[in-house]
Amino acid sequence: MLNLVVCVSGGGTNLQSIIDRIADGTLKDVAIRRVIANNPGAYALTRAKDAGIEGICISPKSYASRAEFNEALLRGVKEAEPDLVVLAGFLVAIPPEMIRAFPNRIINIHPSLIPSFCGVGYYGLKVHEAALKRGVKITGATVHFVDEGMDSGPIILQKAVGVEPGDTPEILQRRVMEQAEWKILPEAVALIAGGRLKVEDGQVRMA
Ligand code: GRF
C-alpha cells in the first residue's frame, strides 16, 4: 500500500482526481491518509471530508514565525507516516527540512510544461496569463519531484494541451486541468505505487 499525504490550498480538483481514481479502482494499492490545507477555507477540505479522509488545516497565520509553521507542517506530514507526499495546488514554499525528510518522495503538479512559465510568481491563473501573453500554441502540465528549488525537481510526466483562439486564462486553466493535470497526477502516483520510477543524475527513468 502506498500511503499518501496530499497538501492543498484551494479547490482541490487535483486531490479529487486521486480520490476518484482510487474509488474507481484505477489507482490500486494507494490510500490517502491525510489531507493538509494551509487555509481553513480550502474547498479541498470539504472534498476530503466527503471522501471520509482526515483533513487538517495548518495555517501560517496560526504561528508566530515561519520557522514554527514549517515545524508544524513537517510534524503534520510525518504523523500520517506517508510513503509519498503529493502537493496538489499547494501554494506554500516547502521547507528544506521537509525536502530532506522525504528525498524524492514529494511530488508536485504544475500547470505548465516546465521549464516554461514556472518558478517564483508562476502559480494558478498567473501561469495561464503568462502563456497567453507569450502567445504559445501548446501548453500543458508537469508532475515533478520536489527539490529545494521552485518547480525545479526531476520531471516525472508531462502532458501537452493546445491553446485555442479566444482562450481566456480561466478557459485555458480549465482545459489544462481537465486534459492534463487530472490525468498525469494520478498516473504519476500509480507509477510510484508500482515502483516503476527511479531518479538517476536528476533524470527520472522507468525502473
Ligand atoms: C490550479 O491553478 C491548478 O492548475 C494548480 O493548482 C491550482 C489549484 O488546483 N495545480 P486544485 O483545484 O486546488 O487542485
What is this structure's SSE topology?
Elements: E1 2-8, H1 13-23, E2 30-37, H2 43-50, E3 55-57, H3 66-79, E4 84-88, H4 96-101, E5 106-110, H5 125-134, E6 138-145, E7 155-162, H6 169-193, E8 197-200, E9 203-206
Parallel strand pairs: 1-2, 1-4, 2-3, 4-5
Antiparallel strand pairs: 5-6, 6-7, 8-9
This protein binds 5-O-phosphono-beta-D-ribofuranosylamine.
Could you give a short description of this structure?
With 207 residues, the chain is an alpha/beta fold. Helix content is 36%, strand content 25%. A seven-stranded mixed β-sheet has the order 3-2-1-4-5-6-7, with helices on both faces. It has a two-stranded antiparallel ribbon with strand order 8-9.
